[in-house]
Amino acid sequence: MIKKTIVIGILAFGLTIFAQEITHESLVINIEVPVRVFNGNIFIDSLTIDDFEVFEDGIPQRVEAVYLIKKRTIERREEKKRFVPETARNFYLFFEVTEYTPRIGKAADYFVNNVLFPGDNLTIITPMKTYRMKPDVLDTLPKEKIVSQIVGILRRDSLVGSSEYRNAVHDLAALAKTLSSASSSQDEFGTAEYQGLELDVQISMYADLLKKLEQIRTVDQNKLLEFAEFLRDKEGQRYVFLFYQREYIPQIERRVLNQIMSANQDREDIIHNLAGLFDFHRREISFDIDKIKQAYADSSISIHFLFFAKPAAYIPGVHMVEHSEDIFNAFNEIAKATGGFTESSANPISLFQNAVNASENYYLLYYNPLNYRKDGKFREIKIRIRDKDYRILHRSGYFAD
Predict the structure, then answer these.
(1) pLDDT tier at 314 (50, 70, 90 boundaries)?
(2) Delimiting residues of CATH 3.40.50 domain(s) in the chain
(3) pTM greater than the 0.90 cutoff
(4) CATH, domain range 89-359
(5) What's the CA gap between 139 and 124, in Å, rounded?
């Protein structure tokens, strides 16, 4: 966050006929950086202002103030210049899930009962819509009721909002199983409707379903940038927790593809469609990662990427391929650029607990950039602790605008 201060100087000039006051305004830019410092997994809360070294585009900066914050309380302050830190908490819980599990509900229960306090702001984003908690809810409703409402929203929206995705995966599994000649008398995946189709039709339908799945899963760069801009103007500290569920795509085994190609060398249409399937599962990221990283770092948002795994379904004759690595790598980079966390586990409750516990303690550091120029360029921030090799998390920079 950039904090701007107007400094007004009044110069009075005595003239022979009248006195004229000329007012000059200068803009003082102060940069606020939330900083988390760990020795292993233990937060270090004993640091002083002299322990911090700050560099902007490689140039040392003078630290003006450091505040130790725990939850919303300023535990300790050291000031060369006085600031008024905004420690109000704004929580944003994103649930990018294709199916609801009870563990997601337990994560919500933990958050309401152990993290959320009166005065905190909560926004929940599901595959269907966005929900904002009313300011007085914690004062008017028991926490059990709040948890019940959140769980109901997550269960319903996961079921309805991701139905198109689940249907596409189901149809892919049925086609992959049919093409792999692994159908059984138990038509668990609906393969009967595909078995009577010609081979070229089956392959074409499989490719079309893959394209449809990619369209469903496309990440909209403009929406990501709009959200960063929206959060930039919010007062206080902003925490984004993104729950992302591991994905698998039913894939025709390469051995089977080779067999079909060998048996249909005289069918150029089949050979062409099959050749395209070999590389189709390699998804390209549809947005500029560096641009997103800089936008969220500039907005001073802590993004915590919580990637929870689930075992792949067993489907005879079908190879279930992990299809989350590209998204994982992209959002991992975004989380690091904002000073947030990335963690992976089969248990979303433990993921949430670890991320919340680690994020509740931090330092707020302020400095006035030397030779500041309002040129719209991104300024890179680096923070070190003198003579210590600690793990340090902070936003990567800001735009000088």
Answers:
(1) confident
(2) 89-359
(3) no
(4) 3.40.50
(5) 19
